[in-house]
Write a structure and sequence with these properties.
By secondary structure, the chain is an alpha/beta fold. The protein contains eleven helices and 13 strands. Strand 4, helix 4 and strand 5 form a beta-alpha-beta unit. The model has no long low-confidence stretch (mean pLDDT 97).
């Protein structure tokens, strides 16, 4: 009997229509277009600023586009996993809200909160569910409304993040195409350098936490940079070595779009030519769980069936990893 693999059979992305450019940020904080571009590679980012819209609404648009594009009956979806750190509410999970808004009744859903690595964690777990033979169609959503937790008076963080979401469809494959392996890691001591101080059970929301501006992203950039680059390089090399492959076998590297310097350092560190590194940080910024699916969406026309792809990410907490797969269409 042939081995069942989980193959990506469709991809769709969504970004809000409102553009927040570097020039716009110049009017909000002490910064400049040149300063932002030089340090991050970002020219603009998308912001979901329409009243009453949440992260789930971006997920709904991504999944709706995915189902229409693949001509899949929503009632055949078995499961929806949503990678996000900006859930609509503390509970229920945004995955369940997305399912409800789309009227999908036969699937169950849950969120994975692994910061910028969330999409990789979700993809790996969904793939294992497909490989078990128990599920035929799983949707993985990666997205965040980072504007909801960014302090637009803090130039160290507000220049980096944007809003957006992407969705993929996973289905069983009995040929050589699909998910191969994943190396996933975490180190909770990293919470000191990248976190949100308040809003959890350790420090519930209060007048004091709001006045202290503790419900926003906190990041120590230099420390995160060093650990992120090393973690992503190590994970990429590990997943390739474990599967008897080298960088020469790779058609594409899809790095988390955190910062141009990190992307460049990782690419150079593993020795892959820049033309084989997917890049769209300049127009979307860092959408955390959304960056990798949005890259796949942007580059879909350039990816060929059978292409060998490694995705890698690093996120707050710390979380990091790499996924190896072959493209199925």
């Amino acid at each position: 009997m042939s081995q069942i693999r989980a193959a990506i059979t469709g991809i769709f992305g969504y970004v809000p229509p409102t553009v927040l450019s570097n020039k716009d940020l110049e009017k909000m904080v002490d910064t400049s277009d040149e300063w932002i571009t030089t340090r991050t590679g970002i020219n603009e980012r998308r912001i979901q600023n329409e009243p009453g819209l949440a992260m789930s609404d971006m997920g709904v648009e991504a999944v709706k586009g995915l189902l229409e594009k693949t001509n899949i009956d929503p009632e055949t979806i078995d499961c929806l996993i949503c990678a996000t750190v900006t859930s609509d509410m503390t509970f229920p999970d945004s995955a369940n809200i997305i399912l409800d808004k789309l009227g999908i009744k036969n699937a169950y859903g849950f969120d994975i909160r692994a910061a910028c690595s969330g999409f990789l964690y979700s993809l790996a777990h969904a793939s294992r569910l497909i490989e078990s033979g128990a599920y035929k169609k799983i949707v993985v959503v990666g997205g965040d409304k980072m504007s909801s937790i960014v302090d637009y008076t803090d130039r160290a963080t507000c220049i980096i993040f944007g809003d957006g979401a992407g969705a993929i469809l996973l289905e069983p494959s009995t040929n050589e195409f699909g998910f191969i392996d994943a190396v996933l890691r975490s180190d909770g001591s990293g919470r000191e350098y990248l976190h949100m101080k308040a809003g959890g059970s350790l420090k519930p929301a209060s007048v004091e936490t709001v006045l202290a501006r503790e419900h926003y992203v906190y990041q120590e950039g230099q420390k995160v940079f060093k650990v992120a680059v090393n973690g992503m390089i190590t994970a990429i090399n590990d997943v390739l070595e474990r599967n008897n492959k080298t960088i020469a076998d790779l058609d594409w590297l899809v790095p988390h779009q955190a910062n141009m310097r990190i992307i460049t350092s990782v690419g150079e560190g593993v020795g892959i030519p820049s033309e084989r590194v997917m890049l769209n940080i300049m127009k979307y910024g860092n959408t955390t769980s959304g960056t990798i699916p949005l890259c796949l969406w942007d580059y879909e026309s350039q990816i060929k069936k059978g292409d060998t792809i490694v995705m890698s990410a690093f996120g707050g907490g710390f979380t990091w990893g790499a996924v190896l797969l072959t493209w199925a269409y």
